[in-house]
Automatic annotation (TrEMBL):
Main location: secreted
Name of the protein this chain belongs to: Pepsin A-5 isoform X2
Protein family: Belongs to the peptidase A1 family.
Subcellular location, record wording: Secreted
Keyword Hydrolase among UniProt keywords: yes
Annotated keywords: Aspartyl protease, Disulfide bond, Hydrolase, Protease, Secreted, Signal
Occurrences of domain Peptidase A1 (ranges): 74-369
Secretion signal, residue range per the UniProt entry: 1-15
Domain of life of the native organism: Eukaryota
InterPro entries named in the record: Aspartic_peptidase_A1, Aspartic_peptidase_AS, Aspartic_peptidase_N, PEPTIDASE_A1, Peptidase_aspartic_dom_sf
SUPFAM superfamilies reported for this sequence: Acid proteases
Organism (species): Mesocricetus auratus
Amino acid sequence: MKWLGVLWLAALSECLVKIPLMKIKSMRENLRENNMLKDYLEKFPRRRAHVRLEQRRNPAVAYEPMRNYLDLVYIGIISIGTPPQEFKVVLDTGSAYLWVPSIYCSSPACVSGRPVNVAYGSGEMSGFLAYDTVKIGDLTVVDQAFGLSLEEPGTFMEYAVFDGILGLGYPDLSLQGILPVFDNLWMQGLIPQNLFAFYLSSKDEKGSMLMLGGVDPSYYSGDLHWVPVSKPSYWQLALDSISVNGVVIACEGGCQGIMDTGTSLLTGPRNSILNIQNLIGAKASSDGEYVLKCGTINTLPDIVFTINGVTYPVPASAYIRKDHSHNCYSNFEEGIDDPSDSEMWVLGDVFLRLYFTVFDRANNRIGLAPAV
C-alpha cells in the first residue's frame, strides 16, 4: 500500500501552490541589538501567549486570542484590493484572523467597517473590519474579511519587521462569523486538497515555503507520521512525553502541545521550563532571558519529544541560539501561566525547522517528517 501513498503525494505536489517565506530579524533581536529589550519587557510584561477573552466580550467589539509577537520571524507577501497593495505578513498557525495596517491601505474597503479590538501578548490594537480581494501566491480570494489596524506611531509594533498577520488556525480562533483565508481558499475551490504544509529553512533567510493544497515530498525525508488533532481550535495534539537520554523530564504521563508557526521558541509550563534551563546550564539574565556558554552546544544532549509513539529529537544546535555578538541564549521559554493550562506546550519554529509539517484540515490531523 506504500506506493499508493507515494502516488497520492506526487499527485498533490503537481497541484499545490508554493508561497515563498523569508526569515526576518525578530522584534526581540531588534530590541536586544538596540539595548532596549529590558525596557520593553518592563513596559510590556510577558502575559499568556494564548488566551480567549470571553470575559471581556462586547457586542460592539471583536476580540482575537492574545499572542506574543516578540519572536515572529517568517513572513510571506500577500496583496489586498484593486489595484493590489502588498503587505508582509506572518503566516501563523496559532491564530485564524487576517489583519494589516490601515495606514497603508487606500482601497474603498478600508474606509469604514465593524469595530475590531485585537489583544496581543504585548499590547492591543484597534481598527475596523473590512472586505476585499486578497491574493496569496497565484490564488485570489474574493470578499475576504480582514482587520485594518489603527495602530498609533510609538507603540510596540514599530519594532516589528512585518505589516500584519495571516492566521491559519481553525475558524474557532477567528472573529465570530468570519471565515479565515484558508477556509475561503477551500470554499471557493481554489486549492485541490484541504490541507497546507510548512517547510522552515534553518540555513538561509530565503528557502522557507508554505504549500497550499498539496505536499512536496522533496522537502522531507522518510515517511510522514500522522497525529490526530486533539482539539480543532489551535493545531493541538497529544504529547506522550519529553525526555533526555531516556529519562522523562517533562510531560510525564502525557500532555498537550500546539504546533505554532507564529511562535519562535519552545514554550511550556514554568516548572518544566525551569527544570530544562537548569539541565542545560542556562542562567537568567537581567532582562529575563536565559543565557549559557556557547561551547556547550557540542556537549549538551538532545531533548526528545515523543508524539504518538514516534520520537522527535531536538538537538542543542536547535534549542540554543547565537546572536550577532556571539552570545548564546536558550530557546526554551515560559509560555503559559494559567494553572488550568499547566500541561500545555507550544512547539514553535525551533521544532518546526527540524520537522516538515502538514496541516490536514480534511482529516483533522498533523503530519510530521524530518525536514531536509
